[in-house]
Specification:
The chain is α+β, with helices and mostly antiparallel strands. It folds into two domains: 83 residues, no CATH class; 91 residues. The chain contains seven helices and eleven strands. GO terms for molecular function: RNA binding. One of its GO terms (cellular component) is cytoplasm. Pfam families: Baculo_F (PF12259).
């Protein structure tokens, strides 16, 4: 009994640090829960590649735990990263070249522009990346880039960079500014 109480106390302390305790959630239980999660994920969505390959210990590393006291009970929320994999993206570095103005003595540049633009192969989805975020993509040894930003649909989210990429003059006039 003392050992069970101590395990429970260690488990609560681990959850207080937003980590998933293996003492309270053993690997076999985690595997059963993952199987249930995989069964209800929408088409094209999945857990991280390492978890998909059966690395149960990765769950303990990736999971973020929140505990809430509800009436006389504790509610445990376990957040796992979920990935959407239906898109292949091409990473483009954005270079803003000045274009001549009417009097041709000065040049104007579009802004705001990100350092990089990742565009889906069908050109229907994109995300803007900073130099740091793109560097993580370029340094990975796999073809999976750890993008932690929202993937935007082409016409839902305004983007100067995407309007210019698609050569959409109407949207680029609305979504882009120029500076001398």
């Amino acid at each position: 009994l003392d050992e069970s109480i101590e395990d429970f106390a260690v488990g609560l302390a681990t959850m207080a640090m937003e980590r998933l305790p293996a003492l309270l959630f053993p690997p076999m239980q985690i595997q059963a829960v993952l199987k249930e999660i995989k069964a209800i994920l929408p088409s094209g969505w999945s857990l991280s590649p390492s978890i998909q390959m059966g690395d149960t210990w990765q769950v303990y590393k990736d999971a973020k735990v929140a505990v809430a006291a509800i009436e006389d009970n504790l509610r445990i929320f376990i957040h796992l990263p979920v990935f959407e994999f239906p898109f292949g993206f091409t990473l483009y570095e954005v270079i803003s070249l000045p274009r001549p103005t009417k009097n041709a003595t000065q040049g104007a540049q579009f802004h705001p522009l990100p350092a990089f633009l990742a565009v889906a192969n069908d050109r229907q989805a994109f995300t803007e990346l900073s130099t740091h975020e793109a560097h993580r993509c370029m340094m990975t040894t796999t073809s999976i880039c750890p993008i932690s930003k929202a993937i935007n649909k082409r016409h839902r989210e305004p983007s100067c960079a995407m309007a210019l990429f698609l050569k959409d003059e109407k949207r680029s006039r609305v979504q882009c500014s120029t500076k001398l």
